[in-house]
Design a protein that fits this description.
This protein is of the alpha+beta class and 91 residues long. The protein has one domain: VC0802-like (2-Layer Sandwich). It is 29% helix and 33% strand. It has three helices and four strands, in the order βαββαβα. It has helices at residues 24-32, 64-74, 85-90, and strands spanning 11-19, 37-44, 50-58, 77-80. Strands 2-3-1-4 form a four-stranded antiparallel sheet, with no helix packed on it. β2 (37-44) and β3 (50-58) form a beta hairpin. 8% of the residues are buried.
Amino acid sequence: MVGGRTNISDERLFSFQFPERIGALSGFLDQIGTNWNISLFHYRNHGSDFGRVLCGIQVPQGSRSQFRAFLKELGYDYTEETDNPVYQLFL
């Protein structure tokens, strides 16, 4: 993965732990639907029970509470990385 500067409005950055099971990704995509735009998606697994996913998602101010409900319902461990200075330098 190579970084580069972009100017994507309302982009939020999250690191997720996707369970390594059939349907984990399609379940995520089905639940996110057409509500939000995925602007970045990077998957990495090292043979463990979960895959690490770095995901940029455009979340307009008016739908942030709906997005938080989506994350809760999704049930995957995640960390918001939007304000992480390392990611800000890299991306």
